[in-house]
Design brief:
The chain is an all-alpha fold. It is built from 10 helices and no strands. The chain has one domain. Helices cover about 85% and strands about 0% of the residues.
Length: about 220
């Protein structure tokens, strides 16, 4: 556990030193959402109807921006070879790195989401469900994205390849994340949608570190 906490704290320190990367993700999220009122018009009814989908889609795309660097730096400086050879389980190391990635990208997106919801006139009854759905969904995006980041290590145009690999896998999270917010606004039950999102997260916690670890071992061989 001490080794995993050391990896987590190391990645967090590196992210803080390169704070521009996190800032770019958040700025992309904010600016892209803020453009929609100019494109579809300022009518509150229209904005409120599209708000859940817009926020979720932009959060999904923003999370893709930082996936390429999840393992790339360690791959380039040789640190990945040491991690593979360490006595600590590589899947546990992947989980620690994903936790650091989520804390520096997914969590800032969740913090920014309420402000953008106000901008898009999202009804007040949807705020809590939006935050809860994103709290369950964004870690899944990071874990699934880690698989794509591991698979494209060493490839040219890795960012494009990650998008092609990962975006289809993000669709279920997008569907149920938006459905939870829409259900809350319409006065319908939202527990089934949140339960499915929690199921996705549990499945990703079990399967994604193992799959990512296998891809990392293949990359260093």
């Amino acid at each position: 556990m001490s080794a995993l906490f050391a990896i987590l704290s190391r990645d967090l320190r590196l992210a803080l030193r390169q704070g521009a990367d996190t800032l770019v993700v958040v700025l992309f999220f904010v600016i892209s959402v803020a453009l929609f009122p100019f494109g579809v018009g300022p009518e509150p009814e229209t904005l409120a109807r599209i708000a859940p989908g817009v926020i979720w889609v932009m959060a999904l795309l923003a999370s893709l921006l930082s996936l390429e660097r999840l393992f790339q730096n360690d791959f380039e400086d040789g640190g990945l070879d040491l991690l593979v050879l360490s006595p600590v389980s590589l899947s546990s190391i992947v989980l620690a790195k994903c936790a650091a990635h989520w804390l520096t990208t997914g969590l800032p997106l969740i913090v920014a989401a309420p402000l953008l919801a106000v901008l898009l006139d999202l009804p007040a009854m949807g705020f809590a469900q939006l935050l809860l759905a994103m709290l369950l969904g964004t870690p899944t995006l990071t874990l699934v994205g880690a698989i794509g980041a591991a698979l494209v290590l060493g490839a040219r145009r890795g960012g494009v390849l990650i998008s092609l690999l990962v975006l289809p896998l993000y669709v279920p999270v997008l569907i149920f994340g938006v459905a939870a917010v829409d259900g809350a606004i319409a006065g319908l039950a939202v527990r089934p949608h949140l339960t499915i999102l929690a199921g996705f997260l549990l499945a990703a916690l079990v399967l994604a570190p193992w799959a990512s670890a296998a891809a990392l071992k293949q990359a260093v061989e």
